[in-house]
Structure formats: C-alpha cells, structure tokens
Amino acid sequence: MPVKSIQVNGEYIMDEGLAADSQINYNDAIDYWTGVPASVDGVLGGFGEQTAVPKADIVGSSTFLRKLQTRMTCPDGVEKLTIDMGAGIGRITRDLLWKVSDKCDLLEPVKPFVAQMNNELVGVKNRGKLGDIYDIGMQEWECDANKVGKYWLVWCQWCVGQLPDEELVKFWERCRTALIGNGIGTLIVKENIAPDDDIFDETDSSVTRSDAKFRELFIKAGFKLIASDIQKGLPKELYPVRMYCLKPNN
C-alpha cells in the first residue's frame, strides 16, 4: 500500500453497504503485490526515484524522529532494536532506520520483495546492522519469545491498510508487548489519510483510513499518542500522509 492519488467518486469500486475494511482480502493483496516490480517505483505505486516522493518521505521521517529524540532515549547498554513492518524491498531500512538503530529486523510477505532485499540491504548488512527477515504477513506475526520487550522501535509505514480494523488492533497489541517497557519503546505509524470516511481500494485490496479512525484504533490497541505531523513536500494529487508517534498506555 504505497502513496495514493486522490480518487474521484466512482474510481474505487466498493459495496457501500459494507464497511471498507471488511472487503480486504489477503490473497488478493499478495497476488497484486507479487505482480508489481520489486523496485522503489513498484513499491511506491509509480512514485519512484524519478519523483520527489522517496526523498521527501525520508527527509520528513528523519525530521520527525529528530523532534522526538528526547522521548526516544535508550538507556546505556540497551540495544536499539528496530523492526520495519511491511518493509517492501527494505527502502526505509536502507535509507533511514539503520542510521538510528543498532539492528534492524524486517517483515514482508511478498516473496519477490524479500528476495530484492538481498540487493537493497547489502550496505546495512556490511555495517552489521541487518537483523532477521520475516517473510510473513503482519496478521501472522508473533514476536519471537527472545525479543518480547526488546524492541526500541516498531515502524509501520504504508502497510497497515492491508489489515482489517480488528486484525490491526490485534497486531498493534502484539507490537505493544514487543516494545521495551517503561516508556522507552516507540511505535511509529506513517500512512495515507482519507479526508472523511475510510476508503477501500480494490486494486491492492487495502483501506485508506481517516485520522479519526487511526486515533480510535490506537486507543483500542492500548497506545497513547505522543506526537503527530503531516508529511511535507508530496505532490498535491496524493492523499495527505500523516506520521504518528505512540507509546504503550501503561
């Protein structure tokens, strides 16, 4: 689920009698993404390195993290372990996450994307920062027993629209238990934002959620919102993209 162009009425085919998220089909999504080129242009829906989107995205995320430095301090001797959820070909780990982390795990269910990580993440691996790669979906992921309570950062970007609301809450609950406790671990969510009601896109079988829906689901999953910001520098024909910083509410 990449950046997406704003759609006019009728460009999305959907049953108005059904909740948007109830129309998500995992198999349809995997079939779609398996047929997409395993490249930056492919994973970003045609807004690849020939456009301003990839650079603007990384700059925006980096700026957001800098603002949060005092809220993400890690005690001496504690590993900054990160997991990049729905990582695609590993673009965000390659261009950003390794720079702020000691080790980066990645999760991605689309096999051609996982295979491409071998090329994209050579530099990360050579620096000793490449962790485990999980070739499964978010709905299947369970934190490894030896990593429960060990993640400093869980990064979810342009991926959670592939999960129905109920499954997304369960996924974030598992993320919560994976994070380091005592307010140290952080969940970052960066996603397209629908202007009003949630919108189902049958192309990749995903949902674009509203800001209000995200905030509702964060609470249900046991998270409190620490900060939020809008991504700047994206083409006007795209849906707004919002970043959220969250901490477990305990």
Secondary structure topology:
Elements: H1 26-34, H2 40-43, H3 53-67, E1 81-85, H4 91-100, E2 103-107, H5 111-120, H6 122-126, E3 130-134, E4 151-157, H7 165-178, E5 186-192, E6 199-201, E7 206-208, H8 211-220, E8 223-230, E9 241-248
InterPro entries: MeTrfase_NTM1, SAM-dependent_MTases_sf
EC number: 2.1.1.244
Protein name: Alpha N-terminal protein methyltransferase 1
Strand order of the largest sheet: 3-2-1-4-5-9-8
Helix count? 8
Largest sheet: 7 strands, mixed
Proportion of helical residues = 25-40%
Ranges where pLDDT stays below 50 over 5 or more residues in a row are none
Number of domains: 1
- Look up the CATH topology: Rossmann fold
Overall geometry: globular
Average pLDDT works out at 94
CATH superfamily: Vaccinia Virus protein VP39
- Judged by helices, strands and strand pairing, the structural class is alpha/beta
Task: Report the strand count.
Answer: 9
Please give the radius of gyration in angstroms.
17 Å
Separation of the first and last Cα atoms: 31 Å
Oligomer: single chain
How much beta, percentage-wise? Answer: 15-25%
Question: CATH class, anyone?
Answer: Alpha Beta
CATH level-two architecture: 3-Layer(aba) Sandwich
Order of helices and strands: HHHEHEHHEEHEEEHEE
Question: Would you write up a description of this structure?
Answer:
The protein has a single domain (20-248), classed as Rossmann fold (3-Layer(aba) Sandwich). Helix content is 31%, strand content 20%. The chain has helices at 26-34, 40-43, 53-67, 91-100, 111-120, 122-126, 165-178, 211-220; strands spanning 81-85, 103-107, 130-134, 151-157, 186-192, 199-201, 206-208, 223-230, 241-248. One of its GO terms (biological process) is methylation. S-adenosyl-L-methionine binds at residues 86, 91, 138-139, 157.
